[in-house]
Amino acid sequence: MTRVLLALADLALGVQLQETLEAHRVQVRWDPTAADGPPPGLAGSGQVEDVVVVDADGLGSRLGDVLDAWRGLDPAPGVIALGGTQAAAGHAADARVTLVSPTDDAATLLEAAQEALRLRFAGSMTRGLARRALLVEKVADPIADAAQIVGAARAIDVEIPREALRWHARSYVCGDPATIAALREVRALTIPEVEFSHHLDGTFTVQTLVKRGPIDAWHAARFIWALTSVGAAKITREPLDLATPRRRALALIRQHLRGRQARLEKSTFYDILEITPAAETEDIEAAYELVGRRYAPQVLGAFDLGELGTIVEPMWAQVEKARSVMHDISARGRYNDWLRGRWNEIRTRWAIETSAAQTAVESYARGQRALGDGDVHRAVGDLAAAARNHTGHPEYEAGL
Questions:
Q1: Could you please report the per-residue DSSP string of 150-170?
Q2: Could you give the CA distance from residue 106 to residue 342 in angstroms, rounded to a whole number?
Q3: Burial 43-64 (b: 16+ CB within 10 A, else e)
Q4: What is the pLDDT of residues 40-91, one digit of tens each?
Q5: What predicted TM-score, i.e. pTM, was given to this entire model?
Q6: For residues 53 and 102, what is the distance between their CA atoms, to the nearest angstrom?
Q7: Predicted pLDDT at 4
Q8: E strand segments, the chain
Q9: Strand order in the sheet with 233-236
Q10: pLDDT tens sequence across 364-381
């Protein structure tokens, strides 16, 4: 019989759930002192229930910390959260826990409890949880301990690593070269696993890695789970660090994509191409080419962008649309008329008056010539005039 602990501070909710579950012949204990985490003395006592129910609405942003405390017990219980608000749903997703509404019927709650019990070792990836899931004892030597976990993981029920990795599908995996080398030294890895480990350079997400080969998807999931559990790999939402050229390039393009997405919100076709209304055909094509060198799908296709991959095509479609409108004189005129009625709704750095744009160009050119002639005082004045007439222009700002 599954034993359930209601770690709820809310008296009414605790009593109601206890009565509901007991009516279905479930062994239930309500303990309001456990609402903020395992009470002192519970760890190592072996008396923790099979499933713990926590209050996501009441805990708020502390939900993740409380769940980590429960998952840190040995043996770890299954955990589910109760919550009915949008905030609770967000906190539950961040904490990687199943959320059940307090208004759900007993059958739904019991089903969630059984699932949490079955996957109780998938809440996080640590050596302790891995050993429990694999039914192996701790070995004193860390490398030997890691080797037995990696070896036993090849036969584990794939649902455990799949559930553990489900929350990290679009996160990056970076192997620890020293630990992986140590595992190779003791012959803990197969030849295909060694080949697969070369992909763990921190530039591929979990969802990409399981399809990379040479091992199949289920083997890859088990292997990533085992390596992460023993500390031979780290899973992060962003590239782990900038220690390699590939990670630096990936981190930089992700930064540029986020910045461009924020910058172009409620902006104009001029901002998309980074041209002014004075731009002519050759200016439009030059701008299109420059934007394409960084944001074209065929360029970004070389990177595993994780969750940002979904914005590449829509963002480039904006560029194509802007180019089309700018080249069509009548369409461009209609677009300018449309803009005039919406100045209070848009944000723009580039859709400025033609006279101001031309003045900025001329001032910047004079400033560059003055610098070449060694007249710094005059150059600063002209460069400042360029930046003043076209606020936010990156080249003019950099020139100052």
A1: HHHHTTS-THHHHHHHHTTTT
A2: 54
A3: eeeeebbbbbbbbbbbbeeebe
A4: 866 555 577 888 899 998 899 999 899 888 887 777 788 889 888 999 999 9
A5: 0.77
A6: 11
A7: 86
A8: 3-7, 27-30, 51-55, 78-82, 98-100, 172-175, 201-205, 233-236
A9: 201-205, 172-175, 233-236
A10: 788 788 778 787 878 788
118 token code pair: 């079955």
> Alpha helix (H) ranges present in 54-134?
56-59, 63-71, 86-95, 106-118, 127-134
Closest Cα partner for 237 from 337, 93, 107, 76? 93
Summarize the chain as % helix, strand, coil (round to 5): 60, 10, 30
Task: Name the average pLDDT for the chain.
Answer: 88
Residue pLDDT, tens place only, 286-330:
999 999 999 999 999 999 999 999 999 999 999 999 999 999 999
User: In a 3-state reduction of DSSP, which class is residue 224?
Assistant: helix
Higher pLDDT, 147 or 109: 147
* 219/93 Cα distance (integer angstroms): 26
Q: How far apart are CA 63 and CA 90, in angstroms?
A: 10
How many other C-beta atoms are found inside a 10 Å radius of the C-beta of residue 253?
Answer: 18
Over the stretch 88-101, which tens digit does the pLDDT of each residue have?
999 988 888 888 88
**Two tokens at 130?**
């891995």
Proportion of the chain above pLDDT 90, given as a percent:
46
The residue type at 73: L
Nearest to 204 by CA among 232, 153, 161, 246: 246
Q: What is the DSSP string of 107-129?
A: HHHHHHHHHHHHTGGGSS--HHH
> What H or E segment, with its residue span, contains residue 219?
helix 217-229
